[in-house]
């Protein structure tokens, strides 16, 4: 709650505000960081080593109630009524096109495993709580959070757009094996890299 209100704070700031020990705060922050709820930036205050200024990640902000998805869903419903469902789907697909362009530029020339790590990190930062695990025939991308769940439940085409987006940025074939919007605990995708992309670019 403190990070939500103040935007960011060091472990020392939080310990003082909450009247608990610094070690207890650091331990809790490490746990929250491991869960993808908080992240940190290095902050320098005067002389000495820089400190870590903690803030909520996208996944952390998602724990607090807001009306964002409901508002977007209402706008999409309006587009469906006035211009048809495909027009609404095109709007949803546009966000993945923009992210694909960003990732393609960021991962240009990388080997497949390096590219996969970058993609998982970016998706994690975007609120998907994504992790990547290697396998002999490619790998598995696991998303423990769906930042668009409310919308994806009403527009399953969004999940199809994500699958197509992943195939584009991973440069390979992607098979969706589970989806949160369909009632599963995670969204999982099996990725098989194109042979020509195995060593880079």
The CATH topology of the largest domain turns out to be H-NOX domain
Helix content: 40-55%
Query: Based on CA inertia axes, which overall geometry fits?
Result: globular
Strand content: 15-25%
Rg from C-alpha positions? 20 Å
- For the record, the CATH architecture of the largest domain stands as Alpha-Beta Complex
Indicate the structural class.
alpha+beta
Largest sheet: 4 strands, antiparallel
CATH superfamily of the largest domain: H-NOX domain
First CA to last CA: what distance? 43 Å
Q: How many helices does DSSP assign?
A: 9
Q: Which runs of at least 5 residues are low in confidence (pLDDT < 50)?
A: none
- Count the E strands: 6
For the biggest β-sheet, the strand order reads 3-4-6-5
The overall pLDDT average reads 86
CATH class of the largest domain: Alpha Beta
Order of helices and strands: HHHEEHHHHEEHHEE
Total domain modules: 2
């Amino acid at each position: 709650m403190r990070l939500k209100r103040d935007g960011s704070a060091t472990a020392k700031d939080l310990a003082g505000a909450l009247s608990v020990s610094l070690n207890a705060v650091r331990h809790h922050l490490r746990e929250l960081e491991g869960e993808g709820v908080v992240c940190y930036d290095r902050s320098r205050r005067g002389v000495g080593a820089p400190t870590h200024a903690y803030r909520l990640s996208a996944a952390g902000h998602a724990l607090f109630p807001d009306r964002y998805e409901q508002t977007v869903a209402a706008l999409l419903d309006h587009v469906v009524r006035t211009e048809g469902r495909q027009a609404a789907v095109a709007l949803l697909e546009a966000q993945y096109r923009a992210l694909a362009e960003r990732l393609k530029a960021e991962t240009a020339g990388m080997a497949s495993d390096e590219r996969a790590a970058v993609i998982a990190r970016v998706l994690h930062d975007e609120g998907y709580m994504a992790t990547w695990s290697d396998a002999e025939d490619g790998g598995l991308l696991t998303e423990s959070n769906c930042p668009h769940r409310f919308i994806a439940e009403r527009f399953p085409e969004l999940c199809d757009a994500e699958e197509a987006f992943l195939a584009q940025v991973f440069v390979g074939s992607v098979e969706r094996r589970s989806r949160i919007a369909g009632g599963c605990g995670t969204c999982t995708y099996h990725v098989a890299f194109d042979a020509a992309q195995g060593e880079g670019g």
